[in-house]
Automatic annotation (TrEMBL), chains A, B, C, D:
Catalyses which reaction(s): (6S)-NADHX + ADP = AMP + phosphate + NADH + H(+); (6S)-NADPHX + ADP = AMP + phosphate + NADPH + H(+)
UniProt keyword list: ATP-binding, Lyase, NAD, NADP, Nucleotide-binding
Function: Catalyzes the dehydration of the S-form of NAD(P)HX at the expense of ADP, which is converted to AMP. Together with NAD(P)HX epimerase, which catalyzes the epimerization of the S- and R-forms, the enzyme allows the repair of both epimers of NAD(P)HX, a damaged form of NAD(P)H that is a result of enzymatic or heat-dependent hydration.
Cofactors that this protein relies on: Mg(2+)
Entry similarity comment: Belongs to the NnrD/CARKD family.
Native source organism of the sequence: Leuconostoc holzapfelii
Enzyme nomenclature, EC number: 4.2.1.136
SUPFAM superfamilies, alphabetized: Ribokinase-like
Subunit structure and binding partners: Homotetramer.
HAMAP family in the record: NADHX_dehydratase
Residue numbers binding AMP: 184-188, 212
Name the record gives this protein: ADP-dependent (S)-NAD(P)H-hydrate dehydratase
Gene that this sequence comes from: nnrD
Residues at which (6S)-NADPHX binds: 40, 99, 147, 213
PROSITE patterns cross-referenced by the UniProt entry: YJEF_C_2, YJEF_C_3
């Protein structure tokens, strides 16, 4: 296991090409947010927009439209009960699952629609739905972001077994599609096709609802944008960025709210772009 | 009567344990907010989240969902007209009553559902409902936060009699459950099972609508989180924190809005954590 | 005509009494905001709350509830289509008219309900409704805040004639109730029962929609709160405060948004309280 | 082609006349924002208000009203499904098209209603609708703000041909009404009746959704307000201001959100007013 270090930031976060337009930095589709969990997709979107995604659309319960626009006019919205196939296919990165609740229908429709070249990030309730209903993973570039209990459900690797890297590697190899695994825990581990990394920053100031939704949004933003890096590197940089900002905030704060982390993204990323 | 001093903060607000996750810092359920008084639960939730509660859910009138998410995507929402029993039982701290209006049905359902190990904070209109309908208190760890008129209704101790501590102590002893009493007034008094404390900070810059809703939210956040302290100490620290932040703001402001106090919590608490 | 000077601020804005609670600083009821003009009552309320009113309730179109709570959880809301009589009678200061549109029914109901001891501030569309329908003024302490065209409609004094103070004084004397007149123009004039004042501060940075709604809200907040001053003095101090803050902001800004002026109230007022 | 320089700012942004009221700075009507693209008109309006327009009304889907008021109480709202003719005729500047989607009916109704003296700015989906349905341009002072693909649709000049100024000039001459063309690209070009200008500031930090909506809003605000400048000069100053603010923000930020640019307008404009 390799330590994940600040070096990943200068490797991934590059000065933007001069001749760029919004399409250059990717189209992100966020799918989630039932009535009860609308905040989850708001936090996804705040993170993705502030991380620099070119265009962000949120497919969610229409009850969440106003709250999204109240904080983030930069995002577009669409009813997640409408036909999503064409919408999914017109985006580069799909983030599905934060606050998705029990909407198995939406998850299946999305998985069926995606193409191999797309990046699909599966988070939150979508992971539990995959496990409960024995779904195949989408035929795409796949990133999954379970915490330990979700990983147990999805992989069958018990939390005790998860301490042994080999179990996690083996489980990934058994997927119908090889994922990049972000295994969230005290020291989050990232399993890429080539290596395993451990995050040694971050802290208990981050232990509050919404932190994972924000991480998923940063991953989406980085995946959409840093196409010169490998997807693995983009994910690694997103994971590092998320906790590095939190640690900066924790210098003067007892807790670090997820929405504050998103607000700090443009300033933080500037320090590493070159 | 003992003066409540800044010492309570260092006693209660501790450096967070390194191996923590959001569940470590408690699940808070806020119940209240009829259509007319939706702001009350928003202020409850802003306070609880910023105080560091791990997970915060607001059970309220669905008309309030968008306003909650517009300010606080970190909170989850649920319709308070739905079946609340299971929801109540899955939380560690229940704060009920801010802006609850005349919803006796919700109050009864909640009181019936709680377990002895849970912390229940009863605030605002819930106190008047208890008095009017002669309800038994819930069989839980109980905190009540009346102002003087509400205390008179609840206990039968007139405002004049309240000047004598013995009347208040006796009234608490007559409850079917021994409460921690936060008796809000010029110098707020806190009656714990062992001692009586008086708050000597705070001031008229705090005299505006929503101040009590914010206090109740801080109490909920502290109760959820500072499980190594006694509940009494957590309540005492919450009461002190609320007015100490207000006094800091009042150095440069004529009045101190409740929502501003909540925003200052992470920075303020950092100074005392060790 | 006397110049209105900064002296009015130290005369009116007093250090708050130590033994105070929210009721001490008055209950303000704001009535207005049809669907199209919901922003008007939001600006009323932002001003009144930040000016220090103890309790603020907004009676408006229910479509505006969420936007109010999204910015100002400290305010309560009520449907202005419901029976307003009892509500009106339970408040100390009534501000009616900002964004009221053509709701003559609400204006009549309010005027009929008020008591002589209440302060009623009539602003915006309510002034035009009074003129068009030849309504009697409410039997209360009356403040009216017309711009020049509205004053012409209400009083019959043409804009040309308004340059002569005597016409305005005479028109006020002809009201069934003697008002305090805030006549908004290049140099706003305030006609009190005893004197006429002219405001010599403020500037074209204030020339934008919502400026009058904010002024009306500050007047309401000051009237509710500074009961030791005369109502005339409270109005004078509110008018001065509104433009003084704008002028401060204009040191570094080309225009001064009404909502920014409200945000500055607590800090500004602190400088004068003693 | 002339470079567009900072000089345009001191030429256009003038110290406001002392005797001014909100009408002096123009009435702006923004038309757009279907349910899915509500954020577009919010960004239009944030820009127009902060740029200093006297009065701003947004005609949009009623589902967007609350989000508009949550961020910008200074704007008025109206249902864009209602009769717009009279509304259009009572405004000085009409900005139509941001997030208008496929609402051809609204576009036609607006074009039919405008007078020659009005300024009409056509943006976003309205440009595609004009091209698809071969609409005549409105008989007004016309500003159009296409990106290169939209310009190809509208004018028939292919993106390759657009590199040659003469093709663009010729296409403008063929319009039934001579437009001011803001051709958005790497170095945005502005075709006025007399000259062609090129913008040499701005950068890829601006490459994100909503940037064009914000530019259109600034143009509307400047057109409404700087009536002593020619319309061409007002448009030129708006284009320069938009990117100059972004470049300032980019000193410390990796990306510059459209809503942040709007927030900086009052401070930025102050530096040039004299």
């Amino acid at each position: 296991m390799k330590p994940l270090t600040e070096n990943i930031l200068t490797k991934v976060i590059k000065k933007r090409p001069t001749h760029a337009y919004k399409g250059t930095f990717g189209r992100v589709l966020i799918i989630g947010g039932t009535l009860q969990y609308g905040g989850a997709v708001i936090m996804n979107a705040l993170a993705a927009v502030n991380a620099g995604a070119g265009l962000v659309t949120v497919a969610t319960d229409p009850a969440n439209f106003t709250a999204i626009h109240s904080q983030l006019p930069e995002a577009m919205v669409v009813d997640f009960n409408s036909d999503l196939i064409e919408l999914v296919q017109h985006h580069d990165v799909i983030l599905i699952g934060s606050g998705l609740g029990d909407r198995l229908d939406i998850l299946k429709e999305t998985f069926a629609a995606v193409y191999p070249k797309q990046v699909v990030i599966v988070d939150g309730s979508a992971l539990t739905l995959v496990a409960e209903h024995h779904l195949d993973w989408p035929k795409s570039q796949l990133v999954i972001t379970p915490h330990q209990m979700e990983w147990q459900r999805v992989s069958g690797v018990s939390i005790a077994q998860q301490a042994f890297e080999a179990f996690n590697v083996l489980a990934c190899a058994n997927f119908n599609v090889r994922p990049i695994l972000v295994l969230k825990q005290f020291h989050t581990q990232i399993y890429t096709p080539n290596d395993i990394y451990e995050l040694n920053i971050g802290g208990p100031h981050q232990a509050m609802g919404g932190m994972g939704d924000t991480l998923a949004g940063i991953i989406a933003g980085f995946a959409a944008q840093f196409f010169l890096a490998s997807l693995s590197d983009a994910v690694l940089a997103a994971v590092y960025t998320h906790s590095a900002i939190a640690d900066e905030l924790a210098q003067t704060q007892y807790i670090t709210r997820p929405t504050e982390i998103s607000q700090q993204l443009p300033r933080f990323m500037k320090k590493y772009a070159n």
